[in-house]
Amino acid sequence: MQKEYIGLIVGALIIVAASGILMSSGLFVSSINEVNVVNNTYSGDGVSFKIPPNWEVNKVVDGSNINIDIAKDNTNNTKITVDISRNPQGMSNQDLINSIQNPSNPSGWHKLSNYTIMVNGNTAYETLYTVNDSSYSKEIVTDEQINFIKNGTTYGLIFDAPIQSFDQEKSNFNITLNSFKVL
Backbone phi, then psi, for 138, in 5-degree steps? Predict the structure, then answer.
Protein backbone atom coordinates (compact mmCIF):
# COMPACT_ATOMS: atom_id res chain seq x y z
CA MET A 1 0.00 0.00 0.00
CA GLN A 2 2.85 2.42 0.79
CA LYS A 3 4.30 2.01 -2.73
CA GLU A 4 0.97 3.20 -4.14
CA TYR A 5 1.31 6.44 -2.15
CA ILE A 6 4.92 6.87 -3.25
CA GLY A 7 3.97 6.59 -6.92
CA LEU A 8 1.05 8.94 -6.32
CA ILE A 9 3.26 11.62 -4.76
CA VAL A 10 5.99 11.38 -7.42
CA GLY A 11 3.33 11.46 -10.14
CA ALA A 12 1.72 14.50 -8.52
CA LEU A 13 5.03 16.38 -8.43
CA ILE A 14 5.63 15.68 -12.11
CA ILE A 15 2.06 16.68 -13.00
CA VAL A 16 2.49 19.92 -11.01
CA ALA A 17 5.66 20.75 -12.92
CA ALA A 18 4.09 19.83 -16.27
CA SER A 19 0.90 21.80 -15.65
CA GLY A 20 2.91 24.85 -14.70
CA ILE A 21 4.83 24.79 -17.96
CA LEU A 22 1.63 24.24 -19.93
CA MET A 23 -0.08 27.11 -18.11
CA SER A 24 2.82 29.46 -18.75
CA SER A 25 2.79 28.49 -22.42
CA GLY A 26 -0.97 29.10 -22.69
CA LEU A 27 -1.75 25.47 -23.63
CA PHE A 28 -3.59 24.60 -20.41
CA VAL A 29 -6.54 26.53 -19.09
CA SER A 30 -7.67 26.17 -15.49
CA SER A 31 -8.91 28.39 -12.72
CA ILE A 32 -5.83 30.53 -12.48
CA ASN A 33 -5.77 33.51 -10.16
CA GLU A 34 -3.31 36.30 -10.85
CA VAL A 35 -1.53 37.31 -7.67
CA ASN A 36 -0.48 40.80 -6.70
CA VAL A 37 3.01 40.84 -5.28
CA VAL A 38 4.32 43.63 -3.06
CA ASN A 39 8.01 44.55 -3.40
CA ASN A 40 8.66 41.33 -5.38
CA THR A 41 7.59 39.29 -2.34
CA TYR A 42 4.82 36.68 -2.22
CA SER A 43 3.33 36.27 1.24
CA GLY A 44 0.34 34.00 1.74
CA ASP A 45 -0.76 30.39 2.04
CA GLY A 46 1.63 29.93 4.96
CA VAL A 47 4.77 30.84 3.00
CA SER A 48 6.80 33.87 2.03
CA PHE A 49 9.42 34.25 -0.71
CA LYS A 50 10.85 36.74 -3.16
CA ILE A 51 10.34 36.48 -6.89
CA PRO A 52 12.53 37.78 -9.70
CA PRO A 53 11.53 41.30 -10.82
CA ASN A 54 8.87 41.49 -13.57
CA TRP A 55 7.97 37.78 -13.48
CA GLU A 56 4.25 36.93 -13.62
CA VAL A 57 2.70 35.16 -10.61
CA ASN A 58 -0.46 33.01 -10.70
CA LYS A 59 -1.98 30.70 -8.13
CA VAL A 60 -3.92 27.50 -8.75
CA VAL A 61 -5.83 25.85 -5.90
CA ASP A 62 -6.88 22.24 -6.33
CA GLY A 63 -8.47 20.89 -3.17
CA SER A 64 -5.83 21.07 -0.45
CA ASN A 65 -2.99 21.55 -2.96
CA ILE A 66 -1.74 25.01 -3.86
CA ASN A 67 0.54 25.77 -6.80
CA ILE A 68 2.09 29.19 -7.16
CA ASP A 69 3.38 29.53 -10.72
CA ILE A 70 5.99 32.17 -11.48
CA ALA A 71 6.77 32.61 -15.17
CA LYS A 72 9.51 34.72 -16.72
CA ASP A 73 7.32 35.29 -19.77
CA ASN A 74 5.02 33.35 -22.07
CA THR A 75 7.62 32.83 -24.80
CA ASN A 76 9.72 30.12 -23.18
CA ASN A 77 9.65 27.45 -20.50
CA THR A 78 11.55 29.36 -17.81
CA LYS A 79 9.50 29.19 -14.64
CA ILE A 80 9.31 28.51 -10.94
CA THR A 81 6.55 26.50 -9.28
CA VAL A 82 5.94 26.47 -5.54
CA ASP A 83 3.83 23.47 -4.57
CA ILE A 84 2.18 23.24 -1.14
CA SER A 85 0.55 19.83 -0.55
CA ARG A 86 -0.93 18.27 2.57
CA ASN A 87 0.69 14.90 3.23
CA PRO A 88 -1.45 11.79 2.69
CA GLN A 89 -2.94 10.43 5.91
CA GLY A 90 -1.38 7.20 7.07
CA MET A 91 1.93 7.81 5.32
CA SER A 92 4.96 8.42 7.49
CA ASN A 93 7.41 11.24 6.89
CA GLN A 94 10.10 8.62 6.20
CA ASP A 95 7.98 7.03 3.45
CA LEU A 96 7.49 10.49 1.92
CA ILE A 97 11.22 11.21 2.14
CA ASN A 98 11.98 7.87 0.47
CA SER A 99 9.57 8.71 -2.35
CA ILE A 100 11.20 12.10 -2.84
CA GLN A 101 14.74 10.72 -2.79
CA ASN A 102 14.01 7.74 -5.04
CA PRO A 103 11.35 8.79 -7.55
CA SER A 104 10.36 6.62 -10.47
CA ASN A 105 11.36 8.39 -13.66
CA PRO A 106 8.79 8.52 -16.46
CA SER A 107 9.91 8.09 -20.05
CA GLY A 108 11.90 11.10 -21.23
CA TRP A 109 12.99 12.09 -17.71
CA HIS A 110 16.69 11.50 -16.97
CA LYS A 111 17.79 11.99 -13.35
CA LEU A 112 21.14 13.80 -13.22
CA SER A 113 21.66 14.15 -9.46
CA ASN A 114 20.09 13.78 -6.06
CA TYR A 115 21.30 15.85 -3.05
CA THR A 116 20.28 16.87 0.43
CA ILE A 117 20.35 20.64 1.04
CA MET A 118 18.98 23.08 3.62
CA VAL A 119 16.07 25.42 2.89
CA ASN A 120 15.49 27.94 5.69
CA GLY A 121 16.68 25.47 8.34
CA ASN A 122 14.76 22.50 6.89
CA THR A 123 16.41 19.43 5.38
CA ALA A 124 15.34 19.39 1.73
CA TYR A 125 15.85 16.89 -1.08
CA GLU A 126 17.01 18.18 -4.44
CA THR A 127 16.66 16.17 -7.65
CA LEU A 128 17.89 17.46 -11.00
CA TYR A 129 16.47 16.14 -14.30
CA THR A 130 16.87 16.62 -18.00
CA VAL A 131 13.39 16.33 -19.50
CA ASN A 132 12.90 15.36 -23.13
CA ASP A 133 9.18 14.68 -23.07
CA SER A 134 6.88 16.43 -25.53
CA SER A 135 3.92 16.06 -23.16
CA TYR A 136 5.88 18.15 -20.63
CA SER A 137 7.54 20.70 -22.88
CA LYS A 138 8.11 21.45 -26.55
CA GLU A 139 11.84 21.72 -25.90
CA ILE A 140 14.36 19.91 -23.73
CA VAL A 141 14.39 21.46 -20.26
CA THR A 142 16.36 21.11 -17.06
CA ASP A 143 14.04 20.54 -14.11
CA GLU A 144 15.27 21.03 -10.55
CA GLN A 145 12.92 19.84 -7.79
CA ILE A 146 13.55 20.70 -4.14
CA ASN A 147 11.15 19.23 -1.59
CA PHE A 148 10.90 19.25 2.20
CA ILE A 149 8.33 18.25 4.80
CA LYS A 150 7.18 20.46 7.66
CA ASN A 151 4.10 20.28 9.89
CA GLY A 152 2.29 17.63 7.81
CA THR A 153 2.86 19.47 4.54
CA THR A 154 5.26 18.86 1.67
CA TYR A 155 6.71 22.02 0.14
CA GLY A 156 8.09 21.75 -3.37
CA LEU A 157 10.15 24.28 -5.30
CA ILE A 158 10.44 23.42 -8.98
CA PHE A 159 12.76 25.36 -11.27
CA ASP A 160 12.50 24.82 -15.05
CA ALA A 161 14.36 26.35 -17.96
CA PRO A 162 15.42 25.27 -21.44
CA ILE A 163 18.57 23.21 -21.10
CA GLN A 164 20.73 25.83 -22.83
CA SER A 165 19.68 28.64 -20.45
CA PHE A 166 19.20 26.83 -17.11
CA ASP A 167 22.59 27.88 -15.68
CA GLN A 168 21.97 31.51 -16.68
CA GLU A 169 18.64 31.44 -14.81
CA LYS A 170 20.10 30.04 -11.55
CA SER A 171 20.52 33.55 -10.09
CA ASN A 172 16.78 34.18 -10.67
CA PHE A 173 15.86 30.78 -9.19
CA ASN A 174 18.07 31.45 -6.15
CA ILE A 175 16.10 34.64 -5.38
CA THR A 176 13.12 32.41 -4.54
CA LEU A 177 15.08 29.51 -3.04
CA ASN A 178 17.19 31.65 -0.69
CA SER A 179 14.23 33.68 0.57
CA PHE A 180 11.71 30.83 0.99
CA LYS A 181 10.15 30.65 4.47
CA VAL A 182 7.31 28.67 6.00
CA LEU A 183 5.37 31.10 8.19
Answer: -75, -15
